[in-house]
Write a structure and sequence with these properties.
Blueprint (H helix, E strand, L loop, with lengths): L3 H18 L10 H12 L4 H10 L1 H4 L11
Helix pairs in contact: 1-2
Length: 73
Amino acid sequence: MTLPNERRMAILRTEEFLSDLLRPRITPRVPMEIRKRALECLRHYPSSYDMACAKKIAPTIFGEWDSEYTRDK
């Protein structure tokens, strides 16, 4: 069973992973096609604002959080 905080962390970690795919220094030798696909996925990815709204609207889905893990880390 997935807990709300695990679901939220999966979203944040996925964003971090896709962002890393766009950085050749972090992920060398990744084909350009993969980098393009990562960029396409991130184009409409939930923003910090979207996640803040989700926190208020759907705490049972994404959990309640303060500052345990944010995109700034």
